[in-house]
């Protein structure tokens, strides 16, 4: 948090250096009346909410730079006015308080707190920002030259977890090469201390497997396998980064046993699919696929969405059960186990069938299935199937 506001302070210095001082004065900044600038701020945000680009544009300098607080991107005056013109209903309500201004000749910096009140059903939710604006005098009028803002983080609401539940998260987690997060007890608190740090962050529980470091709004979500064992954690950062930190100290034999267990669980399903395919029983075969509109099936570049659509096509492929195609494996299915409840299975198989002219033809298929363990058992949630081209004939 301190580094955030140090960066904000440096941005002010840079901004002041970039804004010409119309009065030409170089004297030390003096505290200015906040009452002179608060109406300017309120009028600015009021015009934004109304989509009144004429009123808003009259308060902005032509070389305005507006820093978007959520992602750090920059907007020009033209871009800001375009965004304001497209403001959608229901519009938020902006409030401004804690205004503090300093003036140096024809340039003024105005620091304030802005709260955005967004409608949410019959209520609203609010986000607060620390904002810093740089104004310059242009022909006797204060115009906005630079705008920066950062989030003000609201404290999280902690839940109560007993020490036995929290103790499962104690361990070392690999954030990156040579960089480890040590989650340990300090008194009654669970604390995470990364490599090279002297002071760790207290992990405040907000859900059974989710914690907020020091309660500042950022979240760490611990991942478990089907047996409840902690495998690692995932942490998101305000800049969009997502870090996955696997838990260290898991024996290689443990990982191997997970892979073996997953393979043993899926193999009967594959055998059932093969039996159903050779019986040309579409409904029996489709039991292996997730029965949901989210199911995705891709064949030779054609994408089909939804279980019902794939079933209808499978009935056509097998001529409503009258097909004589015979399938068999070419080699053994390959398993890539991602976790105790997710795996990728790749199969290669031959398909022999009789054509309309009575001739028999044999081709090969490559099938990759994304498998997920669900309450009803293992199911394919995405399938990619393609025909394997025949070997090229050597040139004579």
Outline the structure in words.
- The protein is of the alpha+beta class.
- The protein has eight helices and 22 strands.
- A hairpin with a 2-residue loop joins β19 and β20 (342-354).
- The longest helix is centred in the C-terminal third of the chain and has 27 residues, at 252-278.
How are the secondary structure elements laid out?
Blueprint: H1 2-18, E1 30-32, H2 34-50, H3 53-57, E2 60-67, E3 74-75, H4 77-85, E4 93-104, E5 107-120, E6 123-138, E7 141-152, H5 163-167, E8 171-176, E9 179-186, E10 189-194, E11 201-207, E12 210-213, E13 220-224, E14 230-236, E15 242-246, H6 252-278, H7 282-286, E16 296-299, E17 302-305, H8 307-317, E18 326-329, E19 334-339, E20 342-354, E21 360-374, E22 377-388
Parallel strand pairs: 2-7, 16-22
Antiparallel strand pairs: 1-4, 2-3, 4-5, 5-6, 6-7, 8-9, 9-10, 10-11, 11-12, 12-13, 13-14, 14-15, 16-17, 18-20, 19-20, 20-21, 21-22
The coarse silhouette is elongated
Helix count, DSSP H or I runs of 4 or more residues:
8
Into which percentage range does the β-strand content fall?
Answer: 35-45%
* N-to-C span: 73 Å
- How many domains would you count in the coordinates? 3
**Which whole number gives the mean pLDDT?**
86
Helix content: 10-25%
CATH topology of the largest domain: Nuclear Transport Factor 2, Chain: A
Which H/E pattern describes the elements?
A: HEHHEEHEEEEHEEEEEEEEHHEEHEEEEE
- The radius of gyration computed from the alpha-carbon positions, rounded to a whole number of angstroms, is 31 Å
The SS-based structural class is alpha+beta
CATH class of the largest domain: Alpha Beta
Indicate the CATH architecture of the largest domain. Roll
Q: Widest sheet: strand order?
A: 8-9-10-11-12-13-14-15
């Amino acid at each position: 948090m301190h580094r955030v506001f140090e960066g904000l302070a440096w941005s002010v210095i840079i901004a002041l250096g970039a804004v010409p001082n119309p009065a030409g004065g170089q004297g030390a900044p003096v505290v200015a009346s906040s009452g002179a600038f608060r109406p300017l701020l309120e009028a600015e945000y009021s015009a934004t909410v109304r989509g009144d680009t004429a009123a808003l544009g009259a308060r902005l300098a032509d070389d305005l730079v507006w820093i978007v607080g959520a992602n750090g991107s920059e907007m020009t005056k033209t871009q800001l006015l375009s965004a304001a013109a497209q403001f959608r209903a229901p519009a938020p309500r902006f409030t401004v308080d804690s205004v503090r201004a300093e003036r140096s000749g024809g340039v003024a910096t105005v620091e304030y707190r802005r709260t955005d009140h967004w409608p949410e059903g019959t209520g609203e939710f609010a986000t607060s920002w620390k904002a810093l604006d740089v104004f310059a005098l242009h022909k006797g009028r204060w115009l906005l030259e630079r705008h920066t803002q950062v989030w003000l983080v609201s404290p999280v609401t902690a839940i109560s977890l007993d020490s036995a539940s929290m103790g499962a998260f104690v361990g070392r987690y690999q954030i990156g090469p040579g960089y480890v997060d040590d989650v340990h007890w300090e008194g009654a608190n669970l604390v995470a201390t990364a490599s090279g740090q002297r002071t760790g962050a207290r992990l405040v529980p907000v859900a059974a497997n989710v914690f907020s470091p020091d309660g500042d709004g950022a979240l760490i979500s611990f991942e478990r396998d089907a047996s409840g064992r902690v495998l690692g954690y995932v942490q998101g950062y305000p800049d969009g980064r997502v870090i996955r930190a696997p838990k260290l100290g898991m024996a290689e034999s443990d990982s191997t046993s997970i892979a073996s267990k997953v393979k043993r669980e899926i193999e009967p399903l594959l055998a059932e699919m093969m039996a159903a395919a050779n019986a040309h029983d579409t409904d029996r075969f489709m039991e292996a696929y997730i029965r949901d509109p989210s199911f995705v099936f891709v064949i030779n570049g054609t994408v089909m969405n939804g279980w019902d659509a794939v079933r209808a096509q499978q009935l056509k492929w097998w001529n409503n059960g009258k097909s004589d195609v015979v399938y068999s494996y070419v080699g053994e299915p390959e398993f890539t186990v991602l976790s105790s409840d997710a795996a990728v299975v790749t199969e290669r198989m031959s398909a022999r069938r009789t054509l309309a002219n009575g001739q028999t033809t044999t081709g090969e298929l490559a099938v990759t299935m994304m498998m997920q363990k669900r309450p009803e058992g293992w199911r394919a949630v995405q399938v990619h199937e393609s025909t394997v081209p025949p070997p090229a004939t050597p040139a004579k």
